[in-house]
Amino acid sequence: MTERRRVVALISGRGSNLQAVIEGVRSGAAPAELVLVVSNNPAAAGLAHAAAAGIATAVMDHREYPDRESYDRALTDRIDAAAPDLVILAGFMRILGPVFVDHYEGRLMNIHPSLLPAYPGLETHARVLAAGETEHGCSVHFVTRDVDSGPIIIQARVPVHTNDTPDSLAARVLEQEHRIYPIAVRWFCEGRLSLRNGQVLLDGRARDPQELRADGVIA
Ligand code: GAR
User: Fold this and answer.
1) Considering the entire predicted model, what is its pTM?
2) In terms of CATH architecture, what is 113-139+155-219?
3) What is the tens place of the pLDDT at every residue in 63-82?
4) Which of 28, 34, 151, 165 could lock 200 by a disulfide, CB 3.0 to 4.6 Å apart?
5) Is any atom of ligand 1 closer than 6 Å to the C-beta of 17?
């Protein structure tokens, strides 16, 4: 049996992606163990998902630190004490500095609600609607120094309907987020996924952008 990889998750809010990963791990699909969930927001609902699943939780409120560097340093210490193989950002809404990002290079993933590199940043659903796009989606990527960019691991595409609101579109995208994040975590924990010279390799092979979106997750 494959050895289980240790995963730490960082959250800020609802935690529905965390819950999807918890279920992926619980189903036995991923040889992983969630060893710690850290929230920068004491009121994050996701903390309850973690506690209900018996996962250790920690609140590290960024407002209690004088600057980004000291927060990132304390966060790194807390995460490293849990000896993770993989760190996942699951709706973690704080920018992480270069020292943090470099420290976890190749073992730090994020999920973002757009077809990156399109629409980094916030309010992606409203911006996609305002631009009159006909398709939208979500991406899991390795985190690099630039916010919401970095080598893409997997994406899912959804159609944009003419009567969509930001909320209806967000719900369609979220359903796909919940499918692709557990897949990316499983690949990593199976030892099949890596980052080499800025390129994502799956089973030793570079991923081609068309292939990324074709992982059986296109609506
Ligand atoms: C998700 O839609 C995630 O893609 C997004 O925040 C939401 C968190 O929901 N992340 C970002 O926008 C990162 N730039 P969740 O707490 O229910 O998983």
Assistant:
1) 0.95
2) 3-Layer(aba) Sandwich (3.40)
3) 999 999 999 999 999 999 99
4) 151
5) yes
